[in-house]
Amino acid sequence: MQTEARVGVVVEGGQRGISSGHGSLAAVDGAARRCSQKCQQQQQQQQAQIGTVPQLLAGGVAGAVSKTCTAPLARLTILFQVQGMHYDLATMKKASIWHEASRIVREEGYRAFWKGNLVTIAHRLPYSSVNFYIYEQYKKVLHMIPGVESYRGNMSTELCIHFVGGGLAGMTAATATYPLDLVRTRLAAQTNVIYYRGIWHALRTITREEGWLGLYKGLGATLLSVCPSIAISFSVYETLRSSWQSHRPDDPTVAVSLACGSLSGFASSTATFPLDLVRRRKQLEGAGGRARIYQTGIFGTLKHIVRNEGFRGLYRGILPEYYKVVPGVGICFMTYEALKMLLADIASDL
């Protein structure tokens, strides 16, 4: 990967300059930029070797594996997030992860933890494929902006590029696959009453009862949460991995990706959870013929939640979200990096 190679060479170059006593900070910075350019070219060559389709496949499979592993916690998160819509405060105070998990097993069976997982995979495959692939493309475009080239290798510049590229990638992927995300949420939120019988039935029912725009209900809140979430996730991941590789260059790439991905998921989830909560509730408005609860926009909905449920209501379901996101994002990055290395090896042998 670009980041790993770049960090290793930059640190080595920096050590030479310091130990010799003849190099200046400017010389070290110049060497770092040249090494960064060289390593980026190597990364682009590696991506060209595995091809666009295998790269898309690696991203899609990584997302599907991650979501399947964390599906039970994902469903618990959704159920906690929507409790404030239909339950009174006394009921919500008694809620706990163990209590809700026990209720699911008792009333719906163990398989119910993966309710809606098929549509999750159907959504995550294209979403994750587009997300990872378009992120790399956005990074290339951002590096080509006039004036940025001279700052290549600078930590602040790279962090900014990762943040902006991640945000744009998240918005692109979320918009392209949003109807499947909406259906996934509604299927996962069903408990005893089954209103939607599957993916296609849900799509047809929503279109018939709420119109085509119903498939994009909550898109604004989604983009507001996904853009900073993915931006934070990619930028934190790349920065942490760069720092890790600079101090421990011999550690396995897969293990480093798992650890850094987990920490990046924790950071992004904490920062954007209230917007994700609004997104879920907006998606579920009108589901099953229920009346609308939130008559205002995103910020009005946030005020409504704080007024009726308190500030803690904005983080309802954050604990199972941590349980889900921390390993989930780590598994996603780990699987993606492992598949890219595997596909690159296969391509080189052909």
From TrEMBL:
How does this chain sit within the bilayer? Multi-pass membrane protein
Q: Per the annotation, which location comes first and is thus the protein's main one?
A: membrane
**Sorted UniProt keywords:** Membrane, Repeat, Transmembrane, Transport
Biological process terms from the Gene Ontology for this record are: transmembrane transport
List localization entries: Membrane
GO cellular component terms, alphabetically, are: membrane
* InterPro entries per record: MCP (IPR002067), MCP_dom_sf (IPR023395), MCP_transmembrane (IPR018108)
Q: Which SUPFAM superfamilies would you find in this protein's record? A: Mitochondrial carrier
Q: Where are the Solcar repeats?
A: 50-141, 157-243, 252-342
UniProt family annotation: Belongs to the mitochondrial carrier (TC 2.A.29) family.
Name of protein: Mitochondrial substrate carrier family protein B-like
| Encoding gene per record | LOC115743701
